[in-house]
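Hey,
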Amino acid sequence: MVVKARQRIGSASYSPAVLAVLYQAFDKAWDEVAPTVSKRPAAIEAARQRLANIILSLAKRDSSDAELIKKQAVQMFHRPRAN
């Protein structure tokens, strides 16, 4: 079963305040990286899942800076992946 990117973030064990920060960071980061992603639906969903995973990897229990998380997530998204 494919889990949608925002649902993946929402299923994480964070307080509602931290989840709001993570959603905001995800949405802002997606706005920035979306133009670089293929228009194919499968590619879009894969990119959104990857971005959600990056956002979650950056999250901390006291995350409160959506802009910082967004900036780091965009940098990581564009970093070449190891094979």
